[in-house]
């Protein structure tokens, strides 16, 4: 490695989770980033030339030194977020899924026909996620091309790695007439959207990717699903959709197709290595085998599951089967725009499942023994698992990975984090950060080596 190859370097303590369920803490690591924003090297004082490299980088003005309360951590990956629903985050969550969609969500999303309405909403959504440490986000937009391209442009402009889908909804029996597209036109619009995002000026490094996005089985006709499968094959695009997310949604597929969502998506050419299935609560063994065989991924959205799923997620089993799985905030099926919070939700969700809730039953019969997941597993899902799902080298500090990273400061102003060095082991500190990190603690955010947030400027 020569000095010229290094764009900049960060020296300090870092956490990441290369192995699911475990963590690595380096008390003094030097991470060098190349001119394209990828990691060149991660070294420690065990490596020869460590001190000399630091000196050289410092003299060249290329070194950022972290303080004792700062930690370098991978950027968070949000695998499932509805950007147009950001204005209603926190509203209407007392309703079941079908009513929530019809009463709140479809009327709001329909307003994105007006691009001037969309622009400030999308800006606020992307800014908020970035400020909370989300470096990659997989977005549902709406059925409207112009506004969906606006979301992609907003990600590019603000420097977030974005996976953006123009939604498809063409089944008139399930979608209101004011928020419905024609099948043939919807497919043509989707192809145009894919081409427009790929051709966006400034997107040469593909920071933003188009995603084929059938909303879910009830909102699409079989012709639409089939046409979207063909576009997926043609453009080798990512795919995102909702999968077996509630009793009602599961039963709809069984009644109309005689099969599960996973089987329907597979038959339509929509289940690939680059498919992200949000929720996936009611999976059969066959569904899990199909997901594993294709390398598709699951976006676990624990807080939204508590409102809409009618059951607990089988996260323990999904992790044990080694399916690709990451986390999603699912704004606004859940209201909190932080994947750190989603980590805590995932742990809590699994603990309620393990213990059960019916106090009339004896403890051993109340819950599902052995179904808890750990903080470290939830954090792995939010970083490494998310990176696997988007099929992008992010979520880890290792050569050739993109430098998508956060500087977390446990002594940020107005912080809830209270780290006591003489009491807290590295594992304690990481668990505290996962549980208690707030927006204020995320001081700097880097995406593809570019600093996109600096709260200490
Ligand atoms: O949580 C959800 N949010 C949505 O917008 C949606 N649409 C279909 N199914 C959905 N679930």
TrEMBL record:
Keyword Hydrolase in annotation: yes
Name of one Pfam family that matches: Amidohydro_1
Any one GO molecular-function label of the UniProt entry: guanine deaminase activity
Source organism, top-level taxon: Bacteria
Protein keywords: Hydrolase, Metal-binding, Zinc
Enzyme Commission number, as recorded: 3.5.4.3
Catalytic activity: guanine + H2O + H(+) = xanthine + NH4(+)
InterPro entries to which the protein is assigned, alphabetical: Amidohydro-rel, Guanine_deaminase, Metal-dep_hydrolase_composite, Metal_Hydrolase, Metallo-dep_hydrolases
Recorded metabolic or biological pathway in which this protein acts: Purine metabolism; guanine degradation; xanthine from guanine: step 1/1
Domain Amidohydrolase-related: 71-452
Function: Catalyzes the hydrolytic deamination of guanine, producing xanthine and ammonia.
Similarity remark: Belongs to the metallo-dependent hydrolases superfamily. ATZ/TRZ family.
Protein name as catalogued: Guanine deaminase
Annotated organism of origin: Shewanella corallii
């Amino acid at each position: 490695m020569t000095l010229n190859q290094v764009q900049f370097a960060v020296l300090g303590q870092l956490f990441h989770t290369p192995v699911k369920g475990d963590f690595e803490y380096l008390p003094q690591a030097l991470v060098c980033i190349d001119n394209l924003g990828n990691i060149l090297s991660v070294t420690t004082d065990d490596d020869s030339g460590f001190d000399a490299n630091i000196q050289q980088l410092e003299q060249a003005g290329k070194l950022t030194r972290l303080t004792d309360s700062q930690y370098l951590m991978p950027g968070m990956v949000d695998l499932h977020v509805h950007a147009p629903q950001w204005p209603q985050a926190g509203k209407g969550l007392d309703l079941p899924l079908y009513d929530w969609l019809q009463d709140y969500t479809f009327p709001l999303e329909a307003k994105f026909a007006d691009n001037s309405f969309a622009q400030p909403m999308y800006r606020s959504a992307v800014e908020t996620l970035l400020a909370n440490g989300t470096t990659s986000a997989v977005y549902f937009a709406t059925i409207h091309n112009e506004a969906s391209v606006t979301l992609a442009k907003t990600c590019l402009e603000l420097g977030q790695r974005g996976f953006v889908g123009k939604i498809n909804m063409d089944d008139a029996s399930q979608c209101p007439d004011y928020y419905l597209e024609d099948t043939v036109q919807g497919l043509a619009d989707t192809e145009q959207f894919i081409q427009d995002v790929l051709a966006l000026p400034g997107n040469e490094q593909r920071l933003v990717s188009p995603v084929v996005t059938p909303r879910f089985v009830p909102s699409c006709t079989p012709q639409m699903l089939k046409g979207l499968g063909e576009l997926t094959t043609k453009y080798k695009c990512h795919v995102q959709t909702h999968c077996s997310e509630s009793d009602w949604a599961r039963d709809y597929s069984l009644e109309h197709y005689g099969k599960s969502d996973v089987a329907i998506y597979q038959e339509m050419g929509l289940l690939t290595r680059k498919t992200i299935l949000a929720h996936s609560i009611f999976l059969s063994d066959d569904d899990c085998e199909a997901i594993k065989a294709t390398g598709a991924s699951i976006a676990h959205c624990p807080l939204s599951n508590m409102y809409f799923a009618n059951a607990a997620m089988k996260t323990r089993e999904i992790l044990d089967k080694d399916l690709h799985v990451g986390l999603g905030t699912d704004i606004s099926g859940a209201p909190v725009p932080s994947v750190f919070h989603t980590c805590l939700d995932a742990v809590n969700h699994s603990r309620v499942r393990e213990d059960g809730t019916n106090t009339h039953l004896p403890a051993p019969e109340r819950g599902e023994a052995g179904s808890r997941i750990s903080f470290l597993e939830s954090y792995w899902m939010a970083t490494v698992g998310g990176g696997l799902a988007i099929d992008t080298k992010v979520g880890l500090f290792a050569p050739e990975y993109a430098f998508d990273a956060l500087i977390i400061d446990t002594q940020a102003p107005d912080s809830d984090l209270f780290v006591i060095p003489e009491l807290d082991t590295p594992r304690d500190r990481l668990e505290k950060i996962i549980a208690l990190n707030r927006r204020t603690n995320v001081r700097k955010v880097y995406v593809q080596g570019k600093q996109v947030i600096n709260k200490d400027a």
